[in-house]
Known about the structure:
The complex is a heterodimer of chains A (213) and B (34).
Chain A: E1 2-3, E2 10-11, E3 17-18, E4 49-56, E5 67-75, E6 81-85, E7 91-92, E8 98-101, E9 107-113, E10 116-117, E11 119-120, E12 128-131, E13 137-145, E14 151-159, E15 170-172, E16 176-178, E17 184-186, E18 193-195, E19 201-207, E20 210-212
Parallel strand pairs in A: 1-12, 4-13
Antiparallel strand pairs in A: 2-3, 4-8, 5-6, 5-7, 5-9, 9-10, 9-12, 11-13, 14-19, 15-18, 16-17
Chain B: E1 8-9, E2 14-15, E3 18-20, E4 24-33
Antiparallel strand pairs in B: 1-2
Amino acid sequence: xxxxxxxxxxxxxxxxxxxxxxxxxxxxxxxxxxxxxxxxxxxxxxxxxxxxxxxxxxxxxxxxxxxxxxxxxxxxxxxxxxxxxxxxxxxxxxxxxxxxxxxxxxxxxxxxxxxxxxxxxxxxxxxxxxxxxxxxxxxxxxxxxxxxxxxxxxxxxxxxxxxxxxxxxxxxxxxxxxxxxxxxxxxxxxxxxxxxxxxxxxxxxxxxxxxxx
Amino acid sequence: xxxxxxxxxxxxxxxxxxxxxxxxxxxxxxxxxx
Lengths: 213, 34
């Protein structure tokens, strides 16, 4: 889907955004945003802004503290859709899953989180917006992050002889793949790295589904 | 130079993979390291 949304609204005297996530609340959860196209205005000539809410793909709950990357959508000469990070900054969602990009250059964008494009809540695939000069504020509404089910893995390292905690040792949690011949491979990755604490404890959060070692 | 060693099962069965299913907390307990 591709939304180009009308805009209205404004900033309060302190310069904060007002009406940013205001709108009809049809889900009964009081989120203040149902993803509907809503009219908000920024001051004349204000640079375009992009806002939205990230929710888990499995449960629809807001994803707090999640990095929401603004990704540029382009097409190769063969018509292949290309997704790339377009802005040299990232934003994290607030406790309600909301994110906001200001001063967005013209272009077509999707939002990427956890390494994938966030999808429109109506299940129509990756959601995009096209930003043009003078657009004001564009609202993605609620975006579902596929594979939203994440786990926490924790444990304690101790020495096998003394049974004392091993302190300050780096522990990696790495994805495991098995090829068609059944050969198992551990993909060394620093995506999940933890140093044991004074009690030898380590913990990884936000671990995706699949085999790990 | 640090060395990476895959943690293996103490019963001699070798490498161990953990299946992550999501939305859960897996506690591996005490892991003894030589």
